[in-house]
């Protein structure tokens, strides 16, 4: 989600404090996409701080090279891989470079994402720009997941996490491409988790809440016109109201991501949609109970359709 004003942000909390996980990922290899800006940067840093060797992937090479230097300066291990994740063969190239540099991939974080803001009726006839959102937000994560799964299954360990969004359960004007893509990747992980039962490989989606990023910024006439749509104005007004949605520091999602691949309690949440916009302490405590407590008995954190 994109926000123009930034009141005091919701901060991280003790249950996912970085110092708890220092060294817990030593010897593990993580791929993080979308690391040139936004949530991908703190996620890459947090994984490196926990000991993982991090493959930083994005199109903007100068930005990811700068991130890699920052990680190395802090004593971490990282390489930069400049790729458009949606391009043909990108998944195989990324995994090959990761394995060449560090070894088999243990963690995949599908963070790269784009948005398309505009009424469907105003899209060009070929709707290529609309579909581009699904190429980046759905097809690329699925391709990367497919590229790392055989090795993870063979070694009986691994984590695949895609960054989703709370918009998947909202009806938002002018954001049909983005919201439908996030719904699609979330349901993909639910199904994948069932397929992976007993393999030692775990699958999740998570949402960062209201974090200020470049995502959704108007870039062309259709996007700019969409910002004047009454429904979009109402939505942005709501998002800019701190009483309705409190903004969140991107480090919260980064720390939660590390917790999800280190803390065994999250294994009982396999396939779930983890809401990173709220303190996960209660979730973690409930997940430790037999059958994941209320989470299991009430099928919580699963996107589903309510019926009569």
UniProtKB/TrEMBL annotation:
PANTHER family hit by this protein = DEHYDROGENASE/REDUCTASE SDR FAMILY MEMBER 7B (PTHR44196), DEHYDROGENASE_REDUCTASE SDR FAMILY MEMBER 7B (PTHR44196:SF1)
InterPro entries, alphabetized: NAD(P)-bd_dom_sf, SDR_fam
Which of UniProt's keywords are assigned here? Answer: Oxidoreductase
**Could you tell me what this protein is called?**
NAD(P)-binding protein
This chain's source organism reads Recurvomyces mirabilis
Annotated coiled-coil positions are: none
Can you name one GO molecular function term for this protein? oxidoreductase activity
One Pfam family it belongs to: adh_short
Question: Has keyword Ribosomal protein?
Answer: no
């Amino acid at each position: 989600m994109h926000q123009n004003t930034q009141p005091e942000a919701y901060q991280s909390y003790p249950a996912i404090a970085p110092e708890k996980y220092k060294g817990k990922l030593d010897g593990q290899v993580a791929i993080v996409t979308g690391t040139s800006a936004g949530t991908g940067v703190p996620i890459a840093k947090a994984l490196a701080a926990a000991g993982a060797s991090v493959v930083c992937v994005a199109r903007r090479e100068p930005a990811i090279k700068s991130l890699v230097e920052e990680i190395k300066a802090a004593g971490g291990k990282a390489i930069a891989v400049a790729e458009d994740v949606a391009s043909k063969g990108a998944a195989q190239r990324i995994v090959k470079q990761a394995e060449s540099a560090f070894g088999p991939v243990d963690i995949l974080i599908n963070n790269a994402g784009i948005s398309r803001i505009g009424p469907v009726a105003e899209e060009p006839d070929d709707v290529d720009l609309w579909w581009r959102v699904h190429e980046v937000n759905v097809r690329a994560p699925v391709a990367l997941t497919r590229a790392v799964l055989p090795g993870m299954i063979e070694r009986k360990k691994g984590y695949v996490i895609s960054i989703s969004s709370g918009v998947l359960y909202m009806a938002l004007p002018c954001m049909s491409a983005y919201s439908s893509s996030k719904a699609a990747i979330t349901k993909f992980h639910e199904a994948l988790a069932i397929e992976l039962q007993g393999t030692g490989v775990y699958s999740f989606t998570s949402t960062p809440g209201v974090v200020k990023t470049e995502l959704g910024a108007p870039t062309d006439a259709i996007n700019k016109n969409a910002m004047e749509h009454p429904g979009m104005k109402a939505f942005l007004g709501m998002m800019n109201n701190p009483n309705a949605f409190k903004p969140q520091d991107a480090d919260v999602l980064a720390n939660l991501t590390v917790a999800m691949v280190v803390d065994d309690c999250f294994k009982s949440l396999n396939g779930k949609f983890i809401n990173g916009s709220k303190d996960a302490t209660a979730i973690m405590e409930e997940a430790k109970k037999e059958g994941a407590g209320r989470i299991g008995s009430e099928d919580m954190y699963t996107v589903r359709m309510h019926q009569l």
